[in-house]
Amino acid sequence: MALIFSAVSVQAQTQLKLASFESNKGSWIEVAKVWADPLQSSHELLSEGKGSIILNAPTKKKPGADIVSTEKFGDTEVTLVYMMAPGSNSGMYLQGQYEVQLLDSWAKTQVKAGDNGGIYERWDESKPDGQKGYQGYAPRLNASKAPGVWQTLKVYFKAPRFSPSGEKIENARIISASLNGVTIHEDVELFGPTRGAMAGGEVAEGPIRIQGDHGPIAIQSLEVKRYDTPAPEFGEISYQVFPGAYTELPAENTLKASSSGKIKSFDEFVAGLTSSSLSKFEGKISVKKAGNYTFRMSVPNGLGAIQIGNSTEAPVLKGGMIQTEKALQAGEVSYVIWVSKPTDWTAQGFMLSARSEGMWDQTYSQPAGAEFWSTDPILVNASETPVLRSFIELPGGKKISHGISVSSSSGANFSYDLNSNQLLRVWRGGFLDATPMWDSRGNGVSRPVGVVTELNQGSPLLHNADYSAVTKEWQAKGYQILGDGALRFTSQSKDGIGLNDQIQAKTDGKGIDRILQLTGNSDSLLVFVAPGKTLTKVSDNMYLIEETGIFLVSANAPKVGADGIYLPVTTSLTYSLLF
Hints:
1 helix, single chain, mainly beta, 1% helix, eight-stranded antiparallel beta sheet, 46 strands
């Protein structure tokens, strides 16, 4: 049954609803809530109510089928918020041709092109078995969350280009893709349609297609932003070079050029001087589409100024990032750029870029040697250094001074605050990026590599029945490494209460187990587990913390306080977190 097109557009952004698709044969419905038990053996998403969540719920009477958007797109930014059922399989086809895989890849330590976020293989039936699939691209790491949890896939896609006669002259590209905030692809050229593409082949504009014949999937939102604003073009550039060290612009009639000329791009410019100099560039910018444009420039170890259009204000040389925003009409616009190199050892060139709504960021000039400015990441090899002490930076900039991070071969990692006895965060993917810690002078901070769930901001572990913090001073007695991904932390309070806190990564990589033991305590207390205010019970002893996106497994019923989720404890407590 073809459905009536319905979409909401704001500044070239389209939000696709179920009515935005055709070819629905009945397995796709709209519901108010969706959830799943991540450990169940059946591939099922449970739902209730009627709302705006799109759910593919195939049955024997209504088997799943793909749905195809009635609107077609070229260059786009696609943001998909979706939920997989345990063991389920789906896919999103850009322009109906290039599939980004959607799969329950929870806890896999090695991922392939067919895993969640992968760019699926192309296919050639004429090749021998085992070689039919080719040019598939696995995600850099497994950034998947558990089934039953909302995940976010963001893809920046550049459509193929065609000549006036219809011949393809440029392949499609995925400029970048991120899964749950982690970059999984960058600058991937798509040489042709992937397996299962729609008939008709590659096109300048095509629909979004969601695979529905492989299993249940839910879509909370699907937003498509068009990139249809062409970048302004700098035409022939006139330049003049003036010798001397300038920190401010003199009267132009006092300057005497040592050289001048015309170039087609800024990359062709050569000052011709080894000593300090001031350079002036001017010409016309061809603006293809009216809009607001932001131009940014910077001069390494120097100063610069930029004027776009007619301006009565005199240009002023500035350091750092120089930015100007202009509302430009389509047509020719004049510009003047000044670049001052006040020292003779400054690198040649400068940075110049532009951006606008619905336009790919455009770089017009880069300083010489710019590729050497960035630092290759210093990644901690978990097999060589499975436990690392470091500063830990929390959201908002707060630093934990006595932090420790622990990896596991199963892929589940965690960080712990030795001062507050709190589990700070858990994540899966890689282990640690120690670039801030060891590069140059360093600042002592290591950062997790993967999909991070923040659990605590360094607040106390124990709370009273009214949720007020227990004010005890703890003295850390150290920790013991028990094995792969397992540590026991020991502390003692001044009033004689002992704490043993054992945290163990699960062998299947799906989360961590925690065992807390208090000696010398007779009070009924609460342990802060995670931020959040909404609990959904998905099975016996298992709850989904909606805001945090993790599953809490505990024989003790959790409590919802003003600041988060708590569990009761007197002498011992055992619980698990699945993420």
